[in-house]
Amino acid sequence: MNLDWAWIERNLPMIGSLLVEHLILAVLPVVIAFVISLPLGYLVSKTKRAANVILAFLGVIYSIPSLALFVMMPLILGTKILNPANIVVALAIYSTALLVRCVVDGLRSVPPAVRQSATAVGYGWLRRLFRVELPLAMPVIFAGLRVVTVSNIALVSVAVLVGSGALGKLFDLGFSSSFYTPIIVALIFDALILLIQRGTLPWFRSRPA
Length: 209
What we know:
Helix content: over 70%
Number of helices: 9
Distance between the termini: 43 Å
Number of strands: 0
Order of helices and strands: HHHHHHHHH
């Protein structure tokens, strides 16, 4: 196996730059999707029978292969193929498609008796939403956030096939030259990102049942 640990020291600036790029490309779409999904999920949850049709449509969007969506983005947005905005928008679409379902499922999990009790003590719909329904729905929503965040970290590496990919570029470098040090570095930093997220985001921490 062709390993050269001195390569890491010589290329620390490049590795650091790719790490920051990876974080931005993976986490920014989650933030965008979260902001969009809360109001959208609430509205979908109020459509009753139409909600299942809308959720099925979002499921179809989520099933589109990531590479195909990455390739389509420049045509849709009118951007260049190497523009990072293509990756951010594509992953935001994936994240929104999944998070809307999580918001709907979370709100549906709130017992009707709890809603009725909140209304009976004088809560309006907006106050009831933020003080009662969303707090009870958050475990389901946070579970969805965990899935999309981890998924995005992996998909950003896949984006190397269309000229982006941040840490995924280290995979490409390693495989194309039979030089495995970059691949190991990429794996280490992917794991580091997950550890940072588990430490800073409460829903990443394992909890007893």
